[in-house]
Amino acid sequence: MNEPLIAPSILSADFARLGEEVDNVLAAGADMVHFDVMDNHYVPNLTIGPMVCEALRKHGVTAPIDVHLMVKPVDDLIQMFIDAGASYITFHPEASEHIDRSLQMVREAGLKTGLVFNPATPLHYMDYVMDKLDMILLMSVNPGFGGQSFIPGTLDKLREARRKIDASGRNIRLEVDGGVKEDNIGEIAAAGADTFVAGSAIFKKDDYSRIIADMRDRIAA
Ligand code: DX5
Ligand code: ZN
Predict the structure, then answer these.
(1) Which domain range does residue 80 map to?
(2) CATH number for position 124
(3) Is 207 designated active site?
(4) Is 31 considered catalytic here?
(5) How crowded is the C-beta side of 53, counted as CA atoms within 13 Å?
(6) Contact predicate 173/5, CB 8 Å
(7) In this structure, are residues 156 and 186 in contact, taking their beta carbons and an 8 Å threshold?
(8) Which H or E run contains 72?
(9) Domain tally for the chain?
(10) Which residues surround ligand 2, an ion (CB under 5 A)?
(11) Is 68 annotated as a binding residue?
């Protein structure tokens, strides 16, 4: 299994001090930055776009930026985030007219790809594109907001996704997003996740180093 990665979601950061917040969370031991893009169409909320990603790169952020597109359609924004310095670009299969083409756009630009599965979205969308995936992201809440509760059925879905990845023999990360906290991250890891998004659990704490170290201990336990 891949080395575990912790990806704080900047949705819960203080947007008025975003550069500083990202610097602080990376200095505290985070592995990458999870960047939630919402369009008030595919999901009922509106957040940040490619200009903010580019601004973080100009600010000096060199860590991977994991762009989670909750937008429909996806292709125009994929191109804009390629140009803005994204590292991973993940999108929801329901939001793309041509899933294979959207994945190829990301791959051909040399970035890492991922498909995102809402709680009720079946995993079979991955079946014919396994060779074009670097990551599978399972939503453990309905997308749109930080601070929601983890949906317990995600644990079985994680085990199923882990089986599919292992059966494929491919090196595909399994990420989980939504309601990940220090008290459930151990069982989420045991169910097969190797990449952990956490927004409110990290940014609502004063000591980012301590919560990230605590999460790592619980993943390893
Ligand atoms: C929700 C976003 C998440 C969100 C997670 O639609 O995709 O990345 O920020 O926030 P928490 O960890 O607070 O549930
Ligand atoms: Zn997200």
Answers:
(1) 5-220
(2) 3.20.20.70
(3) no
(4) no
(5) 29
(6) yes
(7) no
(8) none
(9) 1
(10) 36, 68, 177
(11) yes
**Among 10, 11, 68, 211, residue to substitute to test ligand 1 (most atoms within 8 Å of Cβ):** 11
Residue with tokens 């080395």: 3
Tell me whether residue 124 is exposed, middle or buried, using C-beta atoms within 10 angstroms of its C-beta: 0 to 12, 13 to 18, 19 or more. Answer: exposed
**pLDDT by residue for the chain (221 residues), tens digit each?**
799 999 999 999 999 999 999 999 999 999 999 999 999 999 999 999 999 999 999 999 999 999 999 999 999 999 999 999 999 999 999 999 999 999 999 999 999 999 999 999 999 999 999 999 999 999 999 999 999 999 999 999 999 999 999 999 999 999 999 999 999 999 999 999 999 999 999 999 999 999 999 999 999 99
Provide residues with CB under 6 Å of ligand 1: 9, 11-12, 34, 36, 68, 141, 143-144, 146-148, 177-180, 197-201
